[in-house]
Amino acid sequence: MTREERKAGTFGAAGGNLRPVSAGRLDVGISDEIRSRIVSLNYPPGLMIFENAVAAEFGVSRTPVHQAFMRLSHEGLLDVLPQRGARVSFLSRSTIIHAQYVRECLEAAAFFDAARIWDAADAAHLQRERRAQDLIEAQREAVARGDYLRFTELDVAFHTEILGVLGNDLLLACVSQMRNQLNRLRLLELREAHHEKRMIADHEALLAAVSAGRADEARRRLITHLKTLEDFREEIFGRHPDLFRP
Question: Which of 4, 46, 78, 155 could make an S-S bridge to 72, C-beta 3.0–4.6 Å?
Fold first, then answer.
């Protein structure tokens, strides 16, 4: 590790562990771990991290680390600086506003269509409904533990479960890209506004509307659900000016 790496504060400082990954996909496990540290703000905006330090922490070569950095750069979470390492990206106020708009447009239409095609007699749809119910219950458990990062991950999983009925991988990729711009803001909102019980109630109502085929209601409830974060957005911007850029 170079003197610059020790001085800046690096990935290795938090001492994380790789999440289970399939053989040959170490880059996925590394990117998942770094993403969690960034979203939880354990790695705050502006922190420099370095391939050598990450490789040493996980006992791997620099190749999967470089691949992980590229993935997180594509997600807007890291700024890769040639010959200098990578910097945790600052949150952009304008990008957040635009991402919220795009996500709402995509998911409102998608939840409408999911409800329209949902077949309560279809075994696959019933299994999907049970998985969504399990995710809601897991969110309750995360709230009881005060685990807001896990709550956020389960929120993503719930929405993905419903959207998955459409079988549209491009839609899922686009929505995921928008969420990547919003997850840190969402975590701040949960920690400070404590809207988690309202979010769980929203998820229950959304699942009920979709599984009953009430498409207009599903779209309306989805928009209201996403507005929760939008309504608290400016307050978060004001409370944490050091985390945001224009």
Answer: 78
